[in-house]
Write a structure and sequence with these properties.
heterodimer, A: 344 residues, mainly alpha, Formate dehydrogenase/DMSO reductase fold, two-stranded antiparallel ribbon, 13 helices, 2 strands, 74% helix, globular, B: 466 residues, two-stranded antiparallel sheet, 6 strands, 5% strand
């Protein structure tokens, strides 16, 4: 295996980590406006991901930074091609990033409503847009000899790209529902658990459509690859486990389904990383990888520090492992008293 | 056109980003100090103060993080040729920043916010120190990357393909420009955050008469005095080092059009002196000061812009290699003069603190509240001096800015993104300022009614913070 391929694998690990971890917190961000019956329940939802969402988002940043350092040409071609889509993505990331901290800082319904819907909409837009982007890489975009995109914004809305976006959005909702089922109690838990079954079956259909299109539709032959099989089995298993009430296993299976789906993009492209409609101009591992010295330095850094990151991030999930149920307001939050009206 | 727009966009977004970054770096450190004081002495007032300034920290971190994301994306979106050609060098520190610093900061910040009462006091204290260390580590990687643009080291250029490639990662972290500018940025961050802490404390003392804030005003002054003095010294030394590698930057900062052999004087002000005006009227000249500032020697030679231009044309071919002199001249002076004002304020504060009259001097408290605008002007001027002074290069003497832009992105697309970012930054800036002021003015008693935090009750519920 070349160093370039190794770094593609490492980058896929970051993309998978990102979609698994932020997948559920995007899902919670979307669902908190819909599964909750009152303000306290909404707060419970948001607080299930409160301690971890920021650390989860770093997976996206590192996934991007790894492309910058390890595959500069890929980074340059992809980010300039997806230009306006990335502007929208950044706006969504900005709104979402401040919404957590700012929503409860002012005791005013309009203020809180604005940030609540900001969180909801941005949580849906981000996986949708990144899904479209990844789908476009695999589907292929018109690139010139310098690997520069020659189309416009609307050229990014390829049918397969849109399908990919919908797939990542749906999987995020599924992860969110599974996560809420794991982390809440009482009626909220019952609603989330019910939703997680339905979401899993809907996802199973969507993922089936996605992998079929990715493989058969894009002309990759009849026998699916491992990633696609894993993706489909994972989501189906998530549905079955959720129906049986095994929430831990349902969440785990959904994780596997997401991992398979994300891996599908890269497995179908390999050794390309950004397909061009003119095959000669595609960006590949070989033509975009950094010289070996850079990759060696990064390999050493990753080998030493990535395990440390995994250890302390895992520790945070252990610290905050309990289910959330009752209202207990923090001293950090401004005085908002949700208790009386919310006890129904 | 697209190049100019891309430059405007990067200037706007990075200046905006750096309004929040120094508060985060400095305030994380100060909050960690406050929490350590509470941990040691168990004084409940210290706990409230920790939480009071902790909220200000969190309000800023949120917006600092998201504006940083814009930067990372912009390299690929607007500067794709730059990214493609030097990504294997410049991208390395950015990837390391994510892996080593950003994970650490974000993860432990989340644990710190939600960990009150759930973690032992010692572990919880360790979390805020981890956050503080991570913010400083993060700045190290970013400054290593930026310093490489100011003074590229540790790379070689392939004679056949013309590609630049990394050959020595350690050179990026021993780069003299990095060492001095990194320390300069850390000190500037401490100056910024202490002035924020001092302003909030001064307002509380003046309007609410809450003597608890004497402690934070004193803490701010104790950190501010050495930070501003060292910052002036380090900044001056950085000027000498940059003068060696980037003589244009320093010559333009003094509007020195023709070489001055020794005992060069420094002008306090000048009239005229636009980018092409070679004979501005200089007012109040201090003899020999420029030689000392630029070279550490009274006999030092300051090369003139015209001579440097001729040398650069001979070396790099035809072109204009002189940065915008007007911006250089005035950003240098705004930075230095306002820093002197901060120094004066800090000495005044130190004297009052020594006489134990901080809470009584209404004039000082009023001035200290308004002084909060100074560090932001100083920081912005400092970055304009550093970045404008590198022009027309994106990497000094290696790659021109105009050769770094994305070839196929249209002016329309860059306009759309500028409008989008400026729009959302304006809204978020107002929201941030509103929240900072609101939470700086709230009563200390509102921060925490309970002192449940010293003992972890088993089986209790995690708190609803958000």
């Amino acid at each position: 295996m070349t160093l370039g391929t190794l770094w593609l694998l490492i980058d896929v690990v970051f993309w998978v980590g990102f979609f698994v971890l932020e997948g559920f917190d995007f899902g919670v961000g979307i669902l908190h406006s819909f599964v909750s019956k009152n303000d306290v329940e909404r707060r419970i939802c948001v607080n299930t991901i409160g301690p971890v969402w920021d650390g989860n988002e770093v997976w996206l940043i590192v996934a991007g930074a790894v492309i910058f350092a390890a595959f500069p040409l890929w980074y340059a071609s992809m980010f300039s091609a997806l230009y306006l889509a990335l502007v929208v993505l950044l706006l969504a990331l900005i709104v979402r990033g401040v919404a957590f901290e700012y929503t409860r800082k002012v005791d005013d319904e309009r203020w809180q409503g604005a940030f609540r819907w900001g969180l909801t909409i941005s949580s849906a837009l981000i996986p949708l847009l990144i899904g479209v982007g990844l789908g476009d890489l695999l589907h292929g975009l018109p690139l010139n000899g310098a690997h520069q995109y020659t189309g416009n914004f609307f050229g990014l809305l390829t049918p397969f790209g849109l399908m990919s976006g919908v797939t990542m959005l749906a999987l995020s909702v599924l992860m969110g529902a599974d996560y809420l089922a794991l982390k809440t109690d009482g009626e909220l838990h019952a609603r989330a658990a019910k939703l997680s079954v339905r979401a899993a079956w809907v996802c199973a259909v969507i993922v089936w459509g996605f992998v079929t299109w990715a493989h058969l539709g894009l002309g990759k032959g009849f026998v699916p690859n491992v990633a696609e099989v894993v993706a489909l089995l994972g989501v189906v298993a998530a549905a079955l486990f959720a129906s049986a009430g095994s929430e831990g296993w349902a969440f785990t299976a959904a994780t596997v389904g997401v991992a398979g789906t994300v891996a599908t993009f890269f497995a179908e492209m390999y050794p390309k990383v950004m397909v061009s409609t003119n095959p000669a101009n595609s960006v590949t591992v070989a033509n975009s990888a950094s010289p070996s010295y850079t990759l060696k330095v990064m390999t050493v850094v990753a080998l030493v520090f990535f395990p440390v990151v995994l250890v302390y991030q895992t520790w945070t999930y252990v610290v905050f492992r309990r289910r959330l149920s009752g209202p207990r307001l923090s001293a950090n939050a401004p005085a908002v008293d949700p208790a009386p009206s919310a006890q129904g | 056109m697209a190049e100019d727009l891309a430059r405007w966009q990067f200037a706007i977004t990075s200046i905006y980003h750096f309004l929040f970054v120094p508060i985060t770096i400095g305030l994380a450190f100060l909050v960690a100090l406050l929490q350590t004081s509470w941990y040691r002495h168990e004084d409940p007032v210290k706990l409230r103060l920790t939480k009071f300034f902790g909220v200000l920290l969190l309000i800023n971190v949120a917006i600092g993080v998201v504006t940083g994301l814009v930067q990372e994306f912009e390299f690929g979106m607007n500067w794709s040729k730059y990214s493609q050609e030097v990504g294997n060098i410049f991208g390395g520190p950015l990837a390391m920043e994510g892996l080593l610093a950003f994970f650490l900061e974000s993860t432990f910040l989340g644990v710190w916010i939600f960990g009150w009462g759930r973690l032992s006091k010692r572990v919880h204290l360790a979390c805020i120190w981890a956050v503080s260390a991570a913010t400083m580590l993060s700045a190290a990687f970013i400054m290593a990357a930026n310093s490489w643009m100011q003074h590229p080291v540790g790379y070689s250029t392939n004679p056949v393909t013309g590609q630049h490639q990394l050959t020595d990662i350690f050179a990026l972290f021993t780069n003299p420009v990095f060492v001095w500018s990194y320390v300069h940025v850390l000190l500037a961050s401490l100056v910024t955050a202490t002035l924020v802490m001092l302003a909030a404390s001064a307002w509380q003392l003046r309007k609410r008469g809450n003597e608890a804030f004497v402690a934070t005003a004193r803490l701010a002054i104790v950190v501010l005095v050495p930070a501003i003095i060292l910052s002036l010294f380090v900044g001056s030394e950085l000027g000498v080092i940059e003068g060696k590698y980037q003589p244009m930057k320093i010559a333009a900062a003094e509007a020195q059009w023709n070489t001055c052999a020794s005992h060069c004087s420094f002008s306090l002000f000048q009239i005229g002196g636009g980018s092409n005006d070679q004979t501005p009227t200089q007012i109040i000249q201090i003899p020999s000061l420029l030689s000392i500032l630029g070279t550490n020697s009274i006999n030092g030679t300051i090369e003139g812009l015209n001579q440097l231009q001729a040398q650069d044309v001979a070396t790099y071919g035809p072109g204009n290699y002189i940065p915008n002199v007007f911006i250089q001249y005035w950003s240098m002076r705004i930075m230095a003069y306002l820093a002197m004002l901060i120094l004066a304020l800090s000495v005044w504060g130190a004297w009052l603190a020594h006489r134990r009259r901080l809470a009584q001097s209404k004039v000082f408290l009023w001035v200290a509240t308004w002084a909060v605008v100074l560090p932001f002007l100083v920081n912005t001027a400092g970055w304009m001096l550093a970045e404008n002074g590198r022009q027309p290069w994106i990497v000094q003497n290696l790659m021109l800015t105009k050769n770094g832009v994305t070839p196929r992105v249209s002016s329309l697309e860059v306009w759309i993104s500028i409008i989008a970012f400026v729009g959302i930054f304006a809204v978020m800036g107002l929201v941030d300022a509103f929240l900072m002021i609101k939470f700086s003015r709230r009563a200390l008693e509102d921060t925490s009614e309970t002192n449940e935090l010293d003992h972890v009750e088993d089986g209790d519920l995690p708190e609803l913070v958000y």
